[in-house]
Amino acid sequence: MLDSRRNYLSLRGAALLPCVLFIPIAAALIAAPDVAWGEYLGVFFHLSILFLVSRLEAASWAKAAGYGWVALDVLAGILAINDVPHDIAWPVRLGGHVLAGVWIMSSSLVSKSWPVTLVGTITGFWLASYSLVGDVLPESALAPAGICIVIWFALLAYFDRPAEKRSEASMRPASA
Questions:
Q1: Which of 153, 155, 161, 160 is nearest to 21 (CA)?
Q2: pLDDT at 171
């Protein structure tokens, strides 16, 4: 039986998983942007983010936004897989990206790593802002946010330190 209090994946693993899953998505977008199997990859990519939402420090409302993002983006992927017209599925995805921006910015602003804070704030702002003007901008204007989010995931993994290392570092006296 699963224990709801147990972490089944470290923060580092939770951050690296979507990075790894994004590689075939990028390949699919480059090779054949209109193939349906790319949406399947996108669904798995977004589901992997659930592990990260649960592990990152953030206010409960920010985590709720992260979970909402995953739910809406998975919904948008399933709509596309089932041949729902793009002009219906795309606004659902954009609505999810507003929530993604809220979660990414909120969790980045409490990070103790300035690169995570900087890249996360830019990424979250880009995702949320594009969603508000996505009806007048080309979809390609969203692509840099995709690159930024993978960089943000990698930075989260790189700067992750287990709790015991953080507590040891805080107990050391400050050097002059």
A1: 153
A2: 44
